[in-house]
Design goal:
Elements (H helix, E strand, L loop, with lengths): L8 E4 L5 H10 L6 H10 L31 H9 L3 E5 L2 E5 L9 H7 L2 H4 L3 E6 L4 E6 L11 E5 L11 E4 L2 H6 L11 H5 L5 E6 L7 H10 L5 H8 L4 E8 H12 L5 E5 L6 E2 L6
Helix pairs in contact: 8-10
């Protein structure tokens, strides 16, 4: 395949040799070494200050239990690496900043561990950034379909397999390369388009708070009568419902004001609270 013909503009890194690719394929799925476990542990930090009530409840995760993706990599991706190992490519508004397969700071395995992907998105393997903090990843949770895995995206600061945390871009890496739309604009899902802004929803506190001051913001911006003491009780064991009388449109606007200060609120369908809704909506 003439890879250069796919992109409008490309600055590919030096292609990887067959030997380099062989070493990469053999190493990418291996368990973490003692040195890697130690490095991850050194970089873990309690996000709560000592004065915060949540400081004592914080528990670091155990990277020695992580499992790296072990399934065979797509043949097209390995072929692409022979042309572009690292580097940058663009088509339209879609950019790719590729990770080299072997680099002590920004290699594929190194980025996987540095962003704790086996903890937040087990089964995901990153291969590029979009230039705006969004990862391109192979979804390797299931066996390949005719040699291909779905390519998904997730923002580096909000990694996860939740419906509001990742979105599917293409059914193969070549299809992802051929797209020209900025992947950050691909987040609109089928459930979004079917929802009405007047849909009744519940607002949930989805994760522990970094600051108790956020409770005051929640009470103020959501316009709820719930007392600070009750909000604090919910905050002790998230997720928990803090409001269930707003429309989707109202909830998005009010949650955005809080999440701009501390990203902690989520929106769920009132009729099915297992369904988490996007925090933005395009009608």
């Amino acid at each position: 395949m003439d890879w250069s013909s796919i992109f409008d503009e490309s600055r590919p890194g030096s292609g990887a040799s067959d030997a380099d690719i062989g070493l990469f394929v053999a190493a990418i799925g291996k368990p973490l070494s003692e040195e890697e476990v130690a490095e991850v542990n050194r970089n873990q930090r309690n996000p709560f200050p000592a004065s915060d009530p949540f400081h004592a409840a914080y528990r670091p995760f155990d990277p020695s239990r992580w499992e790296m993706p072990k399934r065979p990599l797509p043949a097209d991706f390995l072929s692409f690496l022979r042309w572009c190992n690292g580097g940058w490519c663009r088509t339209g508004d879609r950019e790719f900043g590729f990770f080299p397969i072997s680099d002590p700071a920004h290699g594929v395995r190194e980025m996987t561990l540095a962003y704790h992907l086996p903890q937040h998105m087990p089964g995901a393997l990153p291969f590029a950034f979009n230039g705006g903090g969004t990862f391109y990843l192979f979804d390797m949770r299931e066996q390949a379909d005719r040699g291909n895995y779905p390519v998904v995206c997730a923002h580096a600061g909000a990694l996860g397999w939740g419906p509001n945390e990742h979105w599917v871009v293409a059914d193969s890496v070549v299809a992802a390369f051929r797209g020209s739309v900025n992947v950050d604009d691909c987040r609109k899902s089928e459930s979004e388009s079917e929802l009405d802004a007047r849909e009744l929803v519940a607002v949930y506190l989805e994760q522990p708070l970094k600051s108790l001051k956020t409770l005051i913001l929640i009470k103020e911006h959501l316009g709820i009568s719930t007392s600070i003491a009750e909000l604090n009780r919910v905050a002790q064991s998230p997720p928990g419902c803090i409001s269930d009388g707003l429309t989707y449109g109202q909830a998005m606007k009010r949650c955005a004001k809080v999440n701009a200060i501390e990203h902690c609120l989520g929106i769920r369908l009132l009729r099915d609270r297992d369904v988490c809704l996007p925090l933005t909506w395009q009608g």
